[in-house]
Specification:
By secondary structure, this protein is mostly helical. It contains ten helices and two strands.
Length: 271
């Protein structure tokens, strides 16, 4: 485990020096700022989405609206930027053999890379949530929020519900990261893995809107990005949350295990 932690720290230091790291974090920061500025400059609000009608009444509605918009392409793309590159880059740069000379086995290296990809997804979501809460509070105030059940909750409780919603949102995001890691190991090409991961997420959304396939929608990975709405009901509806837990695992574990096997065989380095 100590070896994996060492790789994890090393990978984090690498991320700090790479432009793609800041590209994703910049997007996570700018999107809520642009959304809030647009609300300030224009009249009306996005009434066709959950909590859209309340963005001018409570700043805590803004991060929830952005969760809905972010699941379409923003966070799958941000997650893929690192998950799709973190293994393929070793093949491209020919650096895996160098890492192995540090008395580390492939399992430890892989574990460190997985933790790094997950950490980046977590930080990006945290940055977006924090920015949205702060910008939303400045724009609309730290006010009580009306839940999906029509019940108004205090601002403090609403903030806790927002935090819980973001935590549940991480589950399908981690599954997306697992798929990105798999493509990174399989294709040995960062660009192909990043684009392929984003296309996978978009394909899931397309399947959900095709006629005659409505019965599949509750079991699609992209649908789990809406599971957090169960927390915004009084009483809380745990059904979508529990479904998100096991479905995210079902979607994420197989490609992660496949990526591990590919990495273990040494295919990534072309040996």
């Amino acid at each position: 485990m100590g070896g994996a932690i060492g790789v994890y720290r090393w990978e984090l230091r690498k991320l700090v020096s790479q432009k793609r790291t800041y590209l994703g974090l910049a997007a996570a920061t700018l999107v809520p700022l642009i959304f809030t500025i647009a609300l300030t400059l224009q009249k009306g609000q996005p009434n066709d989405v959950a909590f859209g009608r309340y963005v001018r009444e409570s700043g805590l509605a803004i991060p929830l609206v952005l969760l809905l918009f972010g699941s379409i392409w923003l966070f799958p793309l941000i997650t893929a930027l690192v998950a799709g590159d973190i293994i393929a880059s070793e093949h491209h740069n020919g650096t895996l053999k160098t890492i192995l000379t540090r008395s580390l086995d492939r399992g430890q290296i892989f574990a460190g890379k997985v933790m790094t990809a997950f950490t980046y997804a977590f930080i990006a979501l945290l940055v977006m949530g924090t920015t949205a809460v702060v910008a939303g509070t400045i724009k609309s105030g730290f006010n009580p929020l009306v839940t999906l059940s029509g019940t108004k909750v205090s601002a403090t409780k609403a903030l806790g519900l927002v935090a819980a919603s973001f935590a549940v949102y991480l589950l399908p995001l981690f599954a997306i990261a697992c798929f990105g890691l798999f493509l990174s190991a399989l294709t040995r090409n960062s660009a192909a893995a990043v684009v392929g991961t984003l296309m996978f997420a978009l394909l899931m959304q397309l399947v959900g809107i095709l006629p005659g396939l409505g019965g599949l929608q509750p079991y699609l990975l992209t649908t789990q990005f809406q599971a957090w709405q169960g927390f915004l009901r009084i009483p809380a509806d745990w059904t979508p949350v529990i479904r998100a837990v096991w479905l995210s695992a079902a979607y994420g574990i197989p490609p992660l295990f496949a990526a591990y096997l590919i990495f273990l065989r040494g295919d990534v380095a072309g040996e």
